[in-house]
Amino acid sequence: MNIEALLAQVAGPPSPSPAPDSSGGAVPAAAPMPLAPGEVSIATFCGFGPHGEFLISFDGGSTRQAVVSAVGLQAADAGRAVVVAPLPGYSEQLAVLARVQAHAPPPAADLKLDGKRVVLHAERDIEIRCGEASIVLTRAGKVLIKGEYVLTRSRGANRIKGAHVDIN
């Protein structure tokens, strides 16, 4: 598929009249932001149009235009700043290149490997799961082991210690 067909499929043909957006309102037709090849600009991601097209605005949202995106944007990204540039050979068609971020997102978990030990740290819980079996470590200090069959083996003593031990 050539780029023109792809752009027509993704963004649709330019329309001089307003088209309804996903919220039922109208998306005012916008004159494309004039950017020279190789130039970039900052715009606001406004959400999605009625056919799933990405909508951006250079004026805070009152005038929107459909663009293509190289970034996986979601509805939750509406209102975020994005970096846009014209597609090579198609100065009228803009593409979202990146989301603007003030700082890196926090890591999902901290993992340290030193060859002798593995340390996995999480803010709330660590869960290891396979089928119906699981081991959960909680922030409160609980260790939960669940499974259809649980076996413990030891060459030495197999001890259960606790303030209160319930068996069956």
| Count of structural domains | 2
Helix and strand pattern? HEEEEEEEEEEEE
Which percent range fits the helix content? under 10%
Anisotropy-based shape = elongated
Q: Could you tell me the radius of gyration in angstroms?
A: 27 Å
Please describe the biggest sheet, giving its number of strands, its sense, and whether it closes into a barrel: 5 strands, mixed, barrel
Number of helices: 1
Q: What's the N-to-C terminus distance?
A: 66 Å
Count the strands?
A: 12
As a percent range, the share of strand residues is: 35-45%
Q: Runs with pLDDT <50, length 5+?
A: 5-30
What is the strand arrangement across the widest sheet?
A: 3-4-5-7-6
Protein name: Mll2356 protein
Biased composition (Low complexity): 20-30
Region (Disordered): 10-30
